[in-house]
Design a protein that fits this description.
The strands form three sheets. A five-stranded antiparallel beta sheet has the order 7-3-10-9-8, with helices on both faces. A three-stranded antiparallel beta sheet has the order 4-5-6. The model has no long low-confidence stretch (mean pLDDT 87). By secondary structure, it is an alpha+beta fold. 44% of the residues lie in helices and 17% in strands.
Length: 338
């Protein structure tokens, strides 16, 4: 266990390195921070921190920089989440309040996160499997062609065409729409299949084939594998940190193009709490020089998706965590009110 003084030395090293981008020496630490001890004592503390793997000496520099282990300890024990100022919170609310639909909400959230943190922002669309049905609309496009529109509690809208074997009249369509909504509105997607299983039997024989076609289309929509969608923004911010990545940022850019990689980085939507993955804690080798800060968002206190940022390990963790948490909270409020 590190003493409180050595924890304070580590905190000072992380703060100075993040702020100056330069390795930190004992003389600079005693000048910038009120550690209450001599430079010689700080040097001894730094030697212990280095032996324990919390800091390292890059090249032949006299200064030290934090390691992944050092950042981990800083995040877990030494860093509080920095609250946003009142003007920052007001700016977030005003920017997101102008969104007109779910795509606009996600797009604005990505741009906002990238601007606030000056990192790469990643926002996952609300997962259909964690959503509830708000409404099912059925529209007649032609005598034997319908459009099914599924609207979720998160504002997500899915449209599908249904080709019928025979014409389906407006009266039958209105009847099916009413019966379908009476069974599924407000229900979780996973609960829908058994609720509509016997619905075709309540219609006349000549309409049952069409009713089954509509239900098949609805159920296919509920379980589609293509539901996991992401939006990413602020990739250009990485160019500001070129020297933070060994040799080149190319592996990072390649990893950010892989949706599966990003989904794994964000983690399961059900894990709604704040998560910080640092350096080699990221399983994908191309992202070993980055950190990922993510949190769940949703309406009614339940996370339906994740959002977060990706940046170099030399990151302002308290500020980034505060921005990510605040934006997630506002997005959740918008979904709840939509």
């Amino acid at each position: 266990m590190l003493s409180e003084r050595r924890l304070e030395v580590l905190r000072a090293i992380v703060q100075d390195y993040v702020g100056t981008e330069e390795p930190v020496g004992s003389k600079a630490l005693t000048e910038r921070h009120r550690l209450g001890v001599s430079p010689a004592t700080v040097r001894n503390d730094m030697a212990v921190l280095e032996d324990e793997g919390y800091i390292a000496q890059p090249h032949t520099s006299a200064g030290r920089i934090p390691t992944d282990k050092g950042y981990r300890l800083f995040v877990d024990r030494l860093a509080g989440v920095k609250p946003l100022s009142t003007p920052e919170r007001r700016a977030i609310q005003n920017f997101l309040d102008g969104a007109v639909d779910l795509d606009d909400v996600v797009g604005r959230t990505v741009r906002l996160l990238a601007q606030l943190t000056r990192q790469v922002a990643v926002v996952q669309y609300p997962s259909l499997t964690r959503s509830t049905v708000r409404h099912v609309e059925l529209l007649s496009l032609a005598p034997a062609r319908l459009m099914l529109v599924l609207i979720t509690d998160t504002g997500r809208v899915e449209q599908r065409l249904v080709d019928c074997q025979a014409p389906f009249g407006e009266t039958s369509l209105a009847d099916l729409r009413a019966r379908l909504n009476s069974r599924v509105v407000g229900r979780r997607f996973t609960d829908v299949p058994p609720l509509v299983k016997d619905l075709p039997e309540s219609f006349e024989n000549e309409d049952r084939v069409t009713v089954r076609a509509v239900l098949d289309t609805l159920l296919e929509t509920l379980v589609e594998e293509a539901e996991e969608r992401l939006m990413i923004g602020g990739t250009a911010n990485l160019t500001r940190f070129g020297h933070d990545f060994p040799l080149t940022i190319r592996p990072v850019l390649e990893a950010l193009e892989e949706q599966v990689v990003l989904l794994k980085l964000l983690g399961e939507a059900s894990e709604s709490g704040m998560a910080v993955k640092i350096g080699h804690e990221n399983a994908y080798e191309g992202l070993n020089s980055t950190s990922v800060v993510s949190v769940g968002y949703g309406s009614g206190g339940e996370a339906v998706a994740k959002l977060g940022v990706v940046g170099p390990t030399r990151m302002d963790y308290p500020g980034t965590m505060g921005a990510v948490r605040a934006v997630a909270r506002y997005v959740g409020q918008i979904l709840a009110e939509s």
